[in-house]
Amino acid sequence: MNQIRSLQNEDENVTLDEHDMEGIAQNSFKNLLFTKDIGDMDHILAGVNMCITNSMYQMLTTKYTDDEIYLVLKGMGPTKALRAYGYPTLFFQKFWHIIDWDVSSFYLKILNEGSIDHGQRSSCLQNSTKFKKK
Questions:
Q1: Are the beta carbons of 119 and 93 closer than 8 angstroms?
Q2: Cross-strand bridge partners of residue 82
Q3: Alpha helix (H) ranges present in the chain?
């Protein structure tokens, strides 16, 4: 039967105590899994081909625009998806000339900055309720 009878710790001290050996084994595996000061990785990464070109990077990091939001809205099926307050896409397509600034500025803030201005959110929703049927 295989059995570990002793282990050597980082200070090169040998122990026979099972509790101490358990701690040494845990520390050894932690050191394998968590990197310490790894230094310069350029020599390792040198063999990795770039997957994203500079032009691709520029395209991926370019901010969204009002025109892109409008193009997406126009490309959606008019009755496919319900939106806030149950409005179909057709509502936004038909009244875009009235609500475009509120809606596009709200979504551009989310898309480009990853944040929501709650004041702007309520303003956007309040403006859309003006069209709600009574």
A1: no
A2: 88
A3: 18-33, 42-45, 54-61, 66-75, 89-94, 96-113, 118-129
